[in-house]
Amino acid sequence: MNKEDLIHKWMNDSLSSEEHKTFKSMPEYQSLSTIRKETDKMQAPALDKESMLASIVENNKKASETKEDPKVTPIWKYISSAIAASLIFLIGWQILQNNDITDIHTTIEEELAVELPDGSSVILRENSNLTY
């Protein structure tokens, strides 16, 4: 049997007499025995269950008294936000979809006279661009 099994059995007080003799012959026996004697003297502090329970109940009461009710947002705020977002989207869409932009290009050795919507005219020489 290995050391760990012997120590485990010794801690659980389940050693046979032969195993106990083997355990006493181990070099660790003296230090383990001292540790066990000292830890057996230790005790957990006594708990006052009633005062602890009273403290917990008191803390819960304080927490529930100071707790604010959650604010409920009226439905009209959600609806107005949705309408505003929809309007912004539609206006942006109309601006981006505005196809009133005209782009005119001339090639090499090409000259072009263009009349603009305001009644003025422009002459484009070769390799020119006009956007309005």
Structure description:
With 132 residues, this protein is mainly alpha-helical. It is 53% helix and 11% strand. It is built from five helices and four strands, in the order H-H-H-H-H-E-E-E-E. The protein has helices at residues 3-11, 17-24, 29-41, 49-66, 75-96, and strands spanning 103-105, 112-115, 121-124, 129-131. The strands form two sheets. It has a two-stranded antiparallel sheet with strand order 1-4. A hairpin with a 5-residue loop joins strand 2 (112-115) and strand 3. The longest helix is centred in the middle third of the chain and has 22 residues, at 75-96. The chain is elongated, with a radius of gyration of 46 Å. 0% of the residues are buried.
Count of helical segments?
Answer: 5
Q: Provide the gyration radius in Å.
A: 46 Å
The best one-word shape is elongated
Q: Level of helix content?
A: 40-55%
What is the distance, rounded to the nearest whole angstrom, between the alpha carbons of the first and last residues? 98 Å
What's the rounded overall pLDDT mean?
86
Précis, in short:
With 132 residues, this protein is mainly alpha-helical. The protein is built from five helices and four strands.
Which terms summarize this structure?
132 residues; mainly alpha; two-stranded antiparallel sheet; 5 helices
Secondary structure elements and their pairing?
Layout lengths: L2 H9 L5 H8 L4 H13 L7 H18 L8 H22 L6 E3 L6 E4 L5 E4 L4 E3 L1
Antiparallel strand pairs: 1-4, 2-3
